[in-house]
Amino acid sequence: MIPFYPIFDPTYILVIVGLLISMAASAYVKSTFNRYDEVKTKNNVTGTQAAQYILKKENIHDVGVQQIAGDLTDNYNSRDKMLSLSQSTGQSTSVAAIGVAAHECGHAVQDDKNYIPLKIRAAIVPVANIGSTAAFPLILLGVLFSWNQTLINVGIFAFSFALLFQLVTLPVEFNASRRAIKILSEGNLLTAEEVPMAKKVLFAAALTYVAAALATFLQLLRLIILFGGNNRRN
Asked: What residues form the membrane-spanning segments (predicted)?
């Protein structure tokens, strides 16, 4: 007999808490970015110019810089050696834009220095993607096949790779921000008064990764409570 779950089971509170944490972090980073996006740098350089300057200064000559669509879609791709800045970052001369551009350059520096956590994260990506995609179908099949605990446990284990990816991401992102602040503190891009503003932007951005890890942990905890161990329901 297929087990029946009430539509509003108590574990939904974990999903709701995770969602609220993620929404709060997202709202905070957007408000912080918008606040310091209004502050134009005295050196009047754009995010793209800042990225190009930092890469040259760090003797990194095999990384390209391009602009992409979107808002706060900035990223660094270690496989393609491409640093992509959103238009709101690449074309802006704000403190926020320079901070974000420097952060992405921090990832390029990590790659150039063979920063181990970055390599580990890159290696985990395929497994994490497969695991998060396969987890729920496996759990569902396990429930449908007379509560096959082996299938269910494999599904939960597969989902745990998503959490592992989030946890490995944390030191990567915080380290990139530390590298960015160190570079910006040298004074060629931002003044001494502007550096603390950029630091606030990067701190707010880092909180989104902490929130994502917490939300993923709460989702995994919910799966364990519902389906793990001896939670078979007749």
From this structure: 12-29, 123-145, 151-172, 201-225
Classify residue 84 by its DSSP letter.
E
Going across the sheet that includes 82-86, the strands are: 64-68, 82-86, 75-77
Q: Is there a contact between 50 and 98 (Cβ–Cβ < 8 Å)?
A: yes
Q: Would you call 104 a catalytic residue per the annotation? A: yes
Task: Report how far residue 6's alpha carbon sits from residue 21's, in angstroms, rounded to the nearest whole number.
Answer: 25
Catalytic residue, candidates 38, 58, 104, 194: 104
SS3 157: helix
Provide the greatest CA pair distance for the chain: 70
Q: How far apart are the first and last CA of the chain?
A: 7
Describe the crossing of helices 149-184 and 116-144 by its angle, rounded to 10 degrees: 160
The first and second tokens of residue 187, run together, are: 């004074």
The model's pTM is 0.87
Nearest Cα neighbor of 202 from 120, 102, 123, 131 is 102
Residues 164-170 have a mean pLDDT of: 95
User: At residue 176, what is the residue type?
Assistant: A
Asked if residues 89 and 101 have their Cβ atoms less than 8 Å apart, the reply is: yes
pLDDT at 8 exceeding the cut of 80: no
Answer for the pair 64, 104: CB distance below 8 angstroms, yes or no. no
